[in-house]
Write a structure and sequence with these properties.
Rossmann fold, 2 domains, 10 strands, five-stranded parallel beta sheet, 8 helices, about 240 residues, globular, about 30% helix
Length: about 240
């Protein structure tokens, strides 16, 4: 009889991932809800499924990490390689959730939904100006799986979509114009709103800075990518 494979599921709360893993035959799942308990749990199993990360978890015997996020810039790649640990991501599975969220945030700003909700709670019935997405130009930074999902949904609202991609010549989606990352500023100059879907790392850190934000002045910015893509001081 083959012993079950030990899998540690880190704190994720309410995602259903832990329950799905526990139901797999041949798996002994340990669900951990407390970050402080993670080092001991990781030491007891060769497989880790997690969204959050701490460098304390690079432990001999850890053979595979399945990240539930698309990005992997939070992981110490060199240390994991030296430890013999394979890292895989969930890239490609978040397109629907994240692209819908991005459009939802854009609608919340342009339609003043947050203001209206607060006024409703105070029994204030007041008309507030709103802006239509139809006819706007939307810039999407990072026309990958999620970025293209944003682009398709934005086109459904009647928006003209432009964006960036590492290799524009390979693009075949709905965007009308595609620029290389070096021309990010041009996207901000032409757009009424911008959605960021970029991963983290040195190549994208503070890609959006003072010049880009000034070019978008009066517009809308939604970041569903990594936070450091935007220079928060410039904001």
């Amino acid at each position: 009889m083959i012993d079950p494979i030990g899998v540690v599921v880190g704190p994720m709360g309410g995602t259903g991932i832990a329950e799905a893993i526990a139901a797999v035959a041949g798996v002994r799942a340990t669900v951990v809800g407390d970050m402080a308990a993670m080092p001991a749990a990781v030491a007891s199993a060769p497989v880790l499924v997690t969204f959050r990360w701490s460098d304390d978890w690079v432990i001999p015997g850890l053979r595979w990490i399945q990240s539930t996020s698309a990005g992997t810039d939070q992981y110490p790649l060199a240390a994991l390689a030296a430890n013999g640990t394979v890292l895989t991501s969930a890239r490609g599975i978040h397109e629907v959730q994240v692209s819908e969220h991005a459009l939802g945030m854009l609608l919340a700003m342009t339609r003043g939904i947050g203001v209206a909700a607060r006024q409703q709670g105070q029994s204030v019935w007041k008309w507030n100006p709103v802006v239509e997405l139809s006819g706007m130009t939307l810039g999407v930074l990072g026309l990958g799986v999620i970025g293209e999902g944003v682009a398709r949904r934005a086109a459904g609202f009647g928006m003209r979509v432009i964006g960036t991609k590492s290799h524009p010549g390979d693009y075949s989606g709905v965007a009308a114009e595609v620029f290389p990352p070096e021309q990010t500023l041009e996207v901000f100059r032409r757009a009424d709103a911008v959605v960021i879907t970029l991963p983290g790392g040195d190549a994208t850190r503070h890609l959006v800075g003072e010049a880009e934000l000034e070019a978008l002045r009066g517009g809308w910015l939604v970041n569903v990518g990594r936070g450091p893509v935007v220079d928060e001081v410039a904001l």
